Amino acid sequence: MIVGVDAGAISITDERLKVGVWRVTFNLLKELSTLDTVNQYRLYSFRVIERGVMEVFGPRMTNVVLRPAKGWMSVRLPIELKLRPVDVFLGLAQALPHSSSHNIGFIYDLGFLYHPDAYGTSANRLKKQTQELVARADHIVTISQASKKDILHQYGIEKDRVTVSYPGVDEELKDWTPDPSSSAGRQVRNDTNTKHPYFLFVGSLNKAKDIPLAIEAFAMFLKKANKPYDLLLIGGDYWPDPAIDAAIHRYQLNGNIRKLGFVPDEMLLDYYRGATAFVTTALHEGFCLPAAEAMAAGTPVVAVDRGAMKEVVGDGGIIVEERGINSASTNLASALARGAETKTRAALSKQATLRAKTFRWKAFAQTVYQRINILTR
User: Which of the two residues, 80 and 172, has the higher pLDDT score?
Assistant: First the structure.
């Protein structure tokens, strides 16, 4: 049997974009290359996938490069699948082409429907391609119960057409022995001169992450803190939110907030473990891989209760109500203060490590492999 895969995400070369779908695609294929010892895989992309990446996947996976990139999903890929059909197609980029094969579509979140302004010109494209995916998919895989609920509500499909499977955490993180005894984790081993305890955000610095809310809360926290703290923002600025710099300037936090841009994985591990807490204020997360990675490193998560955050974090952090007597920023500032307490952080750190153990790429791949076999019986 031949399995076709939209592998365009892992053909990119810009390091700022090797997040989200890139990580899901890479880790899924890596696990499938070991789990599936029978089928052949065609990895379709619009540029050549790096040799080192393909070597990880082994001989049963072949890269098929289709050009041009323009019209790739709507024209070029459908033509290829008509000329050289596959048995099953995996739409890993939340899109599915026209084809005669069995189709498994992947939907990560529907934030573009709830907050279209935060997605700019991408909102309409995502809306169109996700609607087409739902129409073409024999089955849909999503990454949280929260996202499944959104899918069922928005598209009115049968619940049996949607399977939930959590993404995983890299094994390097799971091998760590966290040190929860300090309210600030431990000193980071790098040359960035991180002298103060710090809170950490990891992810794209775009509008959908609502980072200005985190900055406002951090400013409120600092006014009552009895020692200096920093807020480190790690992530690509491919689609930068100009409101981030505006908020930093408004609250006069240039000395306390640093945008570090892209950070290699080997250094990122230290940043996770060294943080007092990982902070996320995303408008509508389907899962939030960085939060799971932080928990695997023994770092608690402080998150606003949006999308799947309560489901993902569980008791591995502090979930802040977005609405209530106080504002979200006030509630978040209080949560930062709680997370900075030594005893609280120690207790949350242990729970965070346990929670992260439930997120395994192997289990994610097993779910997908099972759906492949069910469709082709």
Answer: 80
pLDDT average, residue stretch 133-146 = 98
DSSP string covering 236-293: --SS--HHHHHHHHHTT-TTTEEEEE---HHHHHHHHHH-SEEEE--SS-S--HHHHH
Per-residue pLDDT tens digits for 218-245 = 999 999 998 999 999 999 877 789 999 9
Cα angle value 50/52/58 (rounded, 5°): 105
Q: What is the pLDDT of residue 262?
A: 87
Judged on CB neighbours under 10 Å (0-12, 13-18, 19+), 366 is middle
Cis peptide before 68 (omega within 30 of 0): yes
pLDDT by residue (tens digit) across 14-31?
Answer: 777 788 899 999 999 999
Per-residue DSSP letter, 192: S
Calpha distance 45→3 (Å, rounded): 14
pTM to 2 decimal places: 0.93
DSSP code string of 159-174? GGGEEE------HHHH
The pair of three-digit structure tokens given for residue 175, joined into one six-digit string: 């091998």
Cα 313 versus chain centre, distance? 13
Please indicate, yes or no, whether residues 339 and 215 belong to a single structural domain of this protein. yes
Q: Are strands 139-142 and 2-6 parallel, antiparallel or unpaired?
A: unpaired
Domain span including residue 75: 2-167+360-375
* CA 172 to centroid of chain Cα atoms: 17
Q: Please give the helix or strand (H or E) that residue 232 lies within, else none.
A: strand 230-234
How many domains does the chain contain in total?
2
